[in-house]
Amino acid sequence: MGATIFSYCSDPSTIEGLKWLSCYLTTGKHISMYWSFGTVLLLLAITAPTALAFGFAGATAARSRIAPVSWIGKGYTAIVRGVPDIAFFLFFVIALDQLFEWIRHEVKCPDWTDPIRQGNDFVVCTEAKLPLGNAAAWVHDTYAFFLAVLTFSIVFGAFAANVLTGAMRAVPRAQIETGEAYGMTERQTFWRIMVPQMWVYALPGLSNLWMVLIKATPLLFLLGIEDIVYWARDLGATKTPKFTDYPHGDWRMWYFLALLVFYLCFTKLSEIVLDRINRRLTLGQATAAGEAQRKAAA
Amino acid sequence: MKKLILGTAITALTAGAALAEGHSVVRLGTEGAYPPYNFINDAGEVDGFERALGDELCARAELTCEWVTNDWDSIIPNLVSGNYDAIIAGMSITDERLEVIDFTENYTQPDPSAYLALADADVDLSSAVIAAQAATIQASYAAGEGMTVLEFATPEESVAAVRAGEADAVLADRAYLAPLAEAEADLAFTGENVLIGGGVGMGIRQSDTELRDKFTAAIQSMKADGSLNALIEEWEIGELF
């Protein structure tokens, strides 16, 4: 069934042991699973900085002296943090997709007379479909991935905004005052004094968020993206001889065990990296940890 | 923030603009976890009775089709939202679903569903705890009969619940359970088959009557020349037309 990597895999029913396993683990389906690890890592790599940017924008907006801007910032953190993740991932993404299509519809098909909502259906003109109906599969996949990144970023950005607001408040007032005494403007004290110093206070909260984000990636399948948990569930499911060359019982435990190892290794690695960043950020800070570093070096 | 939102909006608006026009593609949504109806084969592609059926229907209706997999729980919301154009996922035609979506003519007879339990267990179905996949006709049938129902996201989990002793029997399509009963020594059918639902059809948006009629016509032509029966026999789905 299909192409195989090793020539001896053409008839798996005749082989056993390690040889069988080597064939089994290189089926097209398993290769798809290995790729999905890349999908998850890519999602994390893009989402983390984007969410941080959303969080920074949210935190800055919440601190603004202009009331409406501050309401937007505070409203964003309050609403998004309050909505259950699963509701967000099931319905918000569909709503977001419909919003984009509706905007495109208004721009591209001004002559359209039928209503957009027909009963339960959401119908826009063909040119407004996103991606277009005839687009290649990879375009659909990329778009779905983009929606996933955006949704994850909005959700985790709200939490990050809250962490950063706290961190901004934690920077000692005396530091800012010193800046002001040197004649810095508000903008200058913000960018030159507060922002460089706030990270050390934000890091514990942000590293927590990072860990939660790693574990939230299985929500990807709700968005139609085949992630590692989806594949583990599918590959581990009981396979009867009729539908596969590699029949086996319920092996989900082994697949999930592999995922457990992956997630544990990944979080351990994250801890090591975050620890290093923390040491770096503490350097020369007016905190107890910064003081301890100074004494140790002296 | 503003730049991000603006950037996002621009990307969204321009995405795929270069690929405009051309022959439209009909996207078929399936679950990919319900053999023999639909499953992902060793090569990682959608396979099964509905793969063969869907490809043949598209050929007869002269449509270019593409396969998409989607989680069962969100399979209807994504259809009405337009992320694909048809559901072909062993979905039985029921009044409840007809309120939300439309169906083509059925391409299987009303489903014979069956109870699968541990081979050595003596199950009294009237008082048994029944496992079923959530949002299926079997789950609502069992609930309607006043049974205690445990619902699971995937069919695999509902079978695992019986093995784990969490449930006494699983109620699902006989065609799905039969290969399991055959291959696994510890599982066996119990009780009588039950006929639920109005057969399996393709789910289509209510506003998309044109596509519905095209597929219905293709199904009728497959019924007329016996090719549908041949597929049903090949995949051991159940009763013939």
UniProtKB/TrEMBL annotation, chain B:
SUPFAM superfamilies per UniProt: Periplasmic binding protein-like II (SSF53850)
Residues covered by the Solute-binding protein family 3/N-terminal domain: 25-239
Keyword list, A-Z: Signal
Signal peptide region: 1-20
Superkingdom to which the source organism belongs: Bacteria
Keyword Nucleotidyltransferase: no
InterPro entries: Solute-binding_3/MltF_N (IPR001638)
Cited PANTHER family: AMINO-ACID-BINDING PROTEIN YXEM-RELATED (PTHR35936:SF19), MEMBRANE-BOUND LYTIC MUREIN TRANSGLYCOSYLASE F (PTHR35936)
Protein name, UniProt field: Amino acid ABC transporter
Gene source species: Marivivens niveibacter
Lineage: Bacteria, Pseudomonadati, Pseudomonadota, Alphaproteobacteria, Rhodobacterales
